[in-house]
Amino acid sequence: MLAAGLLHASWHSLVKSGQNQITVLAGMGAVAGLCACAALPLVPTPPPAVWPVLLLSVTLHIGYKLCLAGAYMRGDFGQAFPIARGMVPLFATLIAFVSLGQMPSITQCVGIALVSSGLLLLAFDKLNGLAPWPLLTTATAAGAAVAAYSTVDAYGTRLFGDWLGFTAWLIALDSLTFFLVSWVLRGGNLWVELHATRWRILVSGLLGLLSFCVFLWALSRNAVGAVTTVRETSVLFAMAIGVVLHHEALSWRRIGGAVLIFAAIVVIAI
Q1: Separation of first and last alpha carbons in the chain
Q2: Buried b (16+ CB within 10 A) or exposed e, 154-175
Q3: Of 248 and 131, which is predicted with more confidence?
Q4: How many angstroms separate the CA atoms of 239 and 242, rounded?
Q5: Which of 18, 63, 156, 226 could form a disulfide with 24 if both were Cys (CB 3.0 to 4.6 A apart)?
Q6: pLDDT tens digits for 30-51?
Q7: What per-residue confidence (pLDDT) applies to 131?
Q8: Structural domain boundaries of the chain?
Q9: What per-residue confidence (pLDDT) applies to 269?
Q10: How far apart are CA 86 and CA 83, in angstroms?
């Protein structure tokens, strides 16, 4: 999951730095979708009970991508990413408790609280206490969508009984559907933009695919709240990427947020 966090931050950075986030998301989805389609003949066909779960998950994934693109259009990487990710562990734990009956342990609750506090501290340091409502709304909605699809996907992998099969079908369906949505939104410009950013799309697609496969593998074996919390180490990697590549300054709030997130990982690990 630490490796998945690094991959997650990397592809988000590539998406944010693209000229049009919806186009990059559609392109990287197409890359992941082609890989998933190649795996479909090797995995079982979903039973009837799994199809509603897949359709719900696809809907949530598309909503997440649209909200994420909206957040990146309204704020920089250091603003949108921490706000969206800071909401995920709390939402995911609550949804998993209500829908799946997963009761987090005391240590998991402490870890979730720590990582959420650290992420929000990072976010509001960049915002200097002034959160633009359009950015805050889209980033929070993206975080809620991640929490919702994490719970749905955890249920789907268990219901299917084959995490790889569920992952392949989900990625294939999600990629195709979002590409069609992007085509409607971008029109003929989509093909020109895809060609102009083809290398960025290829790299981000492979990074996103690998990161998501690790994430679903972990969800099939562990509690949703704990898995999503450890995944949020992606913000630490995002902070390092911002400092090294984008020359962003460190502050006591950012350092404090990093310490809280590290403490959360230790608490959950033990």
Answers
A1: 15
A2: bbbbeebeebbbbbbbbbbbbb
A3: 248
A4: 5
A5: 18
A6: 898 998 999 999 999 999 999 9
A7: 54
A8: 2-269
A9: 67
A10: 5
Query: What letter does residue 40 receive in the DSSP assignment?
Result: G
Round to whole Å and give the CA distance between 62 and 47: 23
> What contacts 37, CB < 8 A, 6 or more positions away?
172
The SS3 call for residue 129 is coil
Angle among Cα 91, 212, 253 to the nearest 5 degrees reads 50
Taking CA 170 as the corner, what is the angle to CA 231 and CA 27, rounded to the nearest 5 degrees?
Answer: 80
Sort residue 161 into left (φ over 0), alpha (ψ -120 to 50) or beta. left
Written as one letter, the residue type at 180 is L
Q: Higher confidence at residue 47 or residue 17?
A: 47
Mean pLDDT, to the nearest integer, of 54-69? 94
The three-state (H, E, C) secondary structure of 226-259, written as one string: HHHHHHCCHHHHHHHHHHHHCCCCCCHHHHHHHH
Ordered alpha helix ranges (H), 48-197:
51-74, 77-100, 106-127, 133-160, 163-186, 189-196
CB-based contact 64:212 (threshold 8 Å):
no
Question: Cα–Cα distance between 23 and 78 in angstroms, integer?
Answer: 21
pLDDT tens, residue by residue, 165-189:
999 999 999 999 999 999 998 887 8
Structure tokens at 64: 């997440």
Per-residue pLDDT tens digits for 218-245: 888 888 777 877 777 787 888 788 778 7
